[in-house]
Amino acid sequence: MIPGPFLLYLGHSSDAVGIKTSRGLAAFRPKDCLGEWRHDDCPLTLDLPRMDAAAARAAGARTLVLGIANAGGKMDDALIHDALAAISAGLSVASGLHQRLRDEPRLVRAAADAGVTLFDVRDPPADLPIGNGLPRAGNRLLTVGTDCSVGKMYATLALRDAMHARGIAADFRATGQTGIMIAGAGVPVDAVVADFISGAIEQLTPARHDAGWDLIEGQGSLFHPSFAGVSTGLLHGAQPRALLLCHDPSRAHMRGLPHYQLPSITDCLAANLSVARLTSPHVQAVGIALNTVALDEADARRLCSSVADTHGLPCTDPYRFGADPIIDWMLTCCDASTPATTVSA
């Protein structure tokens, strides 16, 4: 476990989606988040006390979390400079970027001299198996999306919390850097060698024999040319009994690809169900989760109602309005009389 309290790094970021790791920790582990470190050119905030590394250490912080994400997951010179300042102040440093802290000699030397620890979160477990597609018992839900970074983790965690409130056993299975930092465990699936993605998810969500649910955090999108491979491996390894489709209605195009338009909800649902049926023939869609952060409450509620009517599925913003409509549908359509998996011919 990464030692808290945390100082959450925003740095020079101007992309609200790009600070998703810091934002996710502030939302789901607020008691562990002491403050935010942002420079004067950063227009973003998590509404936490603003402080630099030295002030955070004096206030009791133990780890600087480099809670930003960028294309390719690289550390630039400004980020390395700030990480070195944090180490000098006595903070450990945690990162979920693809470029590892341990591969930057300046950080390794500084951490050794200061007696602090570097945590690279995006390290998959060793000796992952190849997926076998064998049926396994248990209820599993996977969140999927029309695009990447549309709120799959938020929807999954909101669903878990709502199920717990109703006394339903439910476990969040993290598959990305932010989810792993929140949960303290998981598999960073986008860092897994392609041949082992489905096997990694089979291992993350083994058979369970109670009436509870494994709620698996989705990644990417079948319709995003950069990340569809990860999404496919997740669909096959999860053997989901249920799919929850996540969508950001404010998106004009696929993230990072202005030349690719978003798929329709109808097309996205159909494609994900089709791919999932390879290992889970009885998979069902159980709802649509909208990320309505860009809408006022009245417009958001009207849109949820309209989408629900159009698609014949419950639709809500589970983080903003609660996940009960989705849970009600899950409990109705995914009953014990329908087998979770069968061996296909």
Automatic annotation (TrEMBL):
Superkingdom: Bacteria
Family annotation (InterPro entries): DgcN-like, DgcN-like_C, DgcN-like_N, P-loop_NTPase
Domain D-glutamate N-acetyltransferase-like C-terminal: 133-326
Residue ranges constituting the D-glutamate N-acetyltransferase-like N-terminal domain according to the UniProt record: 45-124
Name this protein carries in UniProt: N-acetyltransferase DgcN
Origin species: Sphingomonas arantia
